[in-house]
Design goal:
9 strands; nine-stranded mixed sheet; Dihydrofolate Reductase, subunit A; binds NADP nicotinamide-adenine-dinucleotide phosphate; 211 residues
């Protein structure tokens, strides 16, 4: 069975997930960081697009200080052309790491297993089937905007969680939680059901589920 897909991201009060320089900015406060690390620890795998690896160089590890018992999830990168920098922190060997590439782009990536799935872009349904066969039951998608768009546009999102911070970033070109092409017509929009709102430190957490 394919995994349950949970999207989690943090955005500014004006709906941006990074600055116009596309560099990581601190949006989660300490209370939200603790929530994110607990959520990571509960999931079997965490996924980002290669754009996030190139921009932010995240390690995607669970920090010991936030959880009682660390259970590092599998780390997954969508990377059609296998562009991942070989010195990326995510390749540090600290937990199992999978790089999904498209046909003809498989290459050696020390610190990761390289899997081929798709022709132009990673075929998300095919990838979810592979992950399901590996026993991955929950997949946390952390970004960035193009990656989240590809899950949303394919109708694959079961839960959508967004922490809204008290910062304003601005900029027409600053990335947002769901970028990519976007839906053109109102009848194409994805409706999600608000299930919980939580005041958290300096911001608010909104939790939605598939309608
Ligand atoms: N605030 C937050 O919570 C948060 C979290 C994460 C990231 N961010 C921000 O998000 C920004 C990066 O976002 P981004 O949109 O540029 O990049 P991204 O979503 O991280 O990565 C997009 C790339 O993934 C690859 N890809 C392969 N298969 C794909 C598929 N099926 N669907 C979508 N992408 C696929 C594509 O590159 P190839 O064609 O080369 O494969 C695509 O360009 C950064 O500024 C980062 O700071 C913010």
């Amino acid at each position: 069975m394919p995994p349950r897909v949970i999207v989690n991201c943090a955005m500014s009060a004006d709906g941006k997930i990074a600055s116009r320089m596309r560099k990581q900015v601190r949006l989660s406060d300490e209370a939200d960081m603790a929530r994110v690390h607990r959520l990571r620890n509960e999931c079997d795998a965490i996924l980002v697009g290669v754009g996030t690896v190139l921009a932010d160089d995240p390690s995607l590890l669970v920090k010991v200080k936030y959880v009682d018992e660390v259970k590092q999830p599998v780390r997954i990168i969508l990377d059609s052309g296998c562009r991942i920098p070989r010195e990326a922190k995510i390749l540090d060997g600290a937990s199992r790491t999978l790089v999904f590439v498209t046909e003809g782009h498989a290459a050696d990536v020390p610190g990761a297993e390289v899997l081929t799935c798709g022709k132009e872009r990673i075929d998300l349904n095919g990838m979810l089937a592979i992950l399901g066969d590996m026993g991955i039951g929950t997949l946390l998608v952390e970004g960035g905007g193009r990656t989240i768009w590809s899950f949303v546009s394919a109708g694959l999102v079961d839960e959508f969680k967004v922490f809204i911070s008290n910062r304003i970033i601005g900029g027409a070109n600053a990335p947002t939680p769901v970028d990519g092409e976007g839906f053109g017509e109102e009848n194409e929009f994805t409706n999600i059901r608000l299930v919980k709102t939580t005041m958290s430190g300096s911001g608010v957490l909104l939790e939605f589920e598939r309608e």
